[in-house]
Write a structure and sequence with these properties.
The protein has 13 helices and 12 strands. By secondary structure, it is α/β, with parallel strands linked by helices.
């Protein structure tokens, strides 16, 4: 173990390693597996309790989750039988799971900079392997992977994180954890580690315990933790893996067009982006898009604001549009997070307009027009 008392320039205990959660932090597992339990219960003539499922089982180990479901729905199955029946369905869906925005970027950056980092998940080891095997390069990048079946207790016990630090050869107090759930944040704090939380709306309460809270991995700044900073910004724009949306544009606002009325975007897509919009008349526009949440009492709904920066907004009103977002400008400030709409500034428009003239982004324009 690295036992010396490393201290950063700001007097804080220095971060020497990073430990990453998997589901909801790096992978958009929820979007790909949404509806599996509903379909499963329908075979037994049981309706899923959507309100209960929306908040109850995030971060649970597989065994705890299975026992809870069997009990809640009075299934005539043992937890093990339930697992054996439902897990093959999950295995098929995991093949469709994509990385959350910023996940590939962070993993590649830590690996290339030689920062020790590990993967620590409440999933079983074999399920972790199944999920990351379809993500190019991930398995090779992680030198340490710890599942809940490799320790005495899963999260919120600190065992997983303590074991990950041990295998990295770094004292727990020198580790930074990036998590999305309350059980994960509790586990990391119990292990005496620093925690950055990037929660979904369902897990917003974990922000009360975390050392730092972000809305997206794209907002993560390693240099704030004395880690090597990213060097992939082009002026004031960050190239991202494309985000695709089918939308209806009306009165400067965007309404998603999805089959089941649920947002196609992961919760952690937040901030001001830019890209291309292809209208139903096959016109292509440069756009700036602000994405956040409208918080009302106990509910949260998507707020999506759009500004067409090289065309007539009135001409484009009430049009179905296919958006291809290719760059990130900034996260939302505290006022924008709580306001009804996301403010798109003149500076945002200037950054987007200049960036979209660069060859790397013009290529995406050509691709978008063929969609």
């Amino acid at each position: 173990m690295n036992s010396h008392d490393s201290v950063s320039v700001n007097g804080e205990t220095q971060v020497l390693a990073v430990i990453l959660d998997l589901d909801g932090t790096l992978l958009d597992t929820e979007s790909a597996t949404r509806g599996i339990l509903q379909e499963f219960l329908a075979k037994y003539g049981i309706q899923v309790d959507k309100e209960r499922e929306a908040n109850k089982r995030i971060g649970m180990t597989l065994k705890d989750s299975a026992a809870s479901i069997v009990k809640d729905y009075d299934l005539q199955l043992t937890p093990d039988q339930f697992i054996n029946e439902i897990m093959p369905i999950y295995h098929e869906k995991w093949k469709q799971v994509g990385p959350l925005p910023g996940a590939n970027r962070l993993i590649r950056h830590l690996y290339e900079q030689g920062v020790p980092f590990a993967l620590a998940s409440n999933s079983l080891q074999e399920y972790i392997d199944a999920k990351i095997s379809v993500q190019e390069g991930w398995k090779e990048c992680f030198s340490v992977i710890v599942g809940s079946d490799q320790v005495k207790s899963g999260k919120p016990s600190p065992d997983i994180f303590i074991e990950a630090a041990k295998r990295l050869g770094i004292d727990a107090v020198h580790c930074l954890v990036i998590e999305d759930s309350m059980v994960g944040v509790k586990a990391a704090k119990s292990a005496k580690m620093k925690v950055v939380a990037i929660p979904s709306q369902k897990e917003a309460d974990c922000s009360t315990l975390a050392d730092s809270v972000l809305n997206s991995l794209l907002e993560f700044q390693p240099e704030l933790w004395d880690l090597p900073e990213f060097d992939d910004w082009i002026e004031n724009a960050l190239p991202i893996e494309p985000i695709y949306m089918n939308t209806l544009y009306r009165n400067d606002s965007v309404h998603e067009l999805t089959e089941d009325a649920a947002s196609s975007l992961p919760d952690q897509v937040s901030g001001v982006y830019f890209g291309w919009a292809v209208a139903s008349a096959l016109e292509t526009f440069k756009v700036v898009v602000g994405i956040g949440w409208h918080l009302r009492s106990y509910t949260a709904t998507r707020k999506i604001q759009i500004c067409i920066i090289d065309g007539d907004c009135n001409h484009a009103s009430d049009l179905e549009m296919e958006l291809t977002l290719v760059g990130f400008i900034r996260g939302l400030n505290s006022t924008e997070i709580t306001s009804v709409a996301v403010e798109i500034r003149e500076e945002d428009k200037s950054i987007a307009s200049a960036s979209l003239d660069l060859p790397m982004f013009i290529h995406h324009s050509c691709m978008a027009s063929r969609l």
